[in-house]
Amino acid sequence: MQIEAFSELFPLLTAASPETLEWLLSVAVEHEYPANRAVLMEDAWGNAVYFVASGWVKVRRLSGSGEDVVTLAVLGRGDFFGEMAILDESPRSTDVIALSAVKLISISAQRFIQTLFKDPQLHHRMLQLMVRRLRQTNIRFQLRHQPPAVKLANTLVSLGENYGYESPHGIEIFNIPFKDLADVTDIGVEETAKIMEKLDSKGWIKIDATSHTVCLMNLKQLTHLAGKV
Description:
The strands form 3 sheets. The chain has a 4-stranded antiparallel β-sheet. The chain is α+β, with helices and mostly antiparallel strands. The protein is built from 9 helices and 12 strands. The longest helix has 23 residues, at 120-142. Helix content is 44%, strand content 25%. Helix 2 (18-27) runs antiparallel to helix 4, helix 6 packs across helix 7 and helix 7 packs across helix 8. The chain folds into 2 domains: 3-140, Jelly Rolls (Sandwich); 146-226, Winged helix-like DNA-binding domain superfamily/Winged helix DNA-binding domain (Arc Repressor Mutant, subunit A, Orthogonal Bundle). The mean pLDDT is 90.
């Protein structure tokens, strides 16, 4: 991967100097995983920072017995995970699973921390993105008493804005399983299925099970429903 492509792909790296980018590329390790494969187990947190080069992953929380599993977040191309475990050494009870075929780039914890100390612009950019995640969490909290359709529309719009691809018909995102979509939206699975079916019938979205995509065909209406305007 060229330095320019590396920087353009990952928003975290847009502020990094050319020297920093060259160094990170020289120590980066590439990984490929099929769908449904665990890409990071709970005992591996803190070893590295992972960047999503392509595909979709979910971060899930496990109970002690492993029977109660809740999806905390869905991440797509350009995002990263594992950075907070580097900054503190608390035990983790979460893991990361590939929702689709996924390509990751990892940088070891020691080398990433060294880079943060050397490049204050990269350090500042990471803090900005972590604050943005906190704001998104706050938005979810503020929406907790809103109708399920409003909450789900907010999730769909956010996924489209953060990770979607432009197509002739709208913004395409991965067809996330309803259980995972329900978890990150904090509504029931049956409610999720009904709302998605209704949005599809209205022509606001188009679910394509064959290509594993959901096309947000009427982003304006979805944004209005989500209360973002």
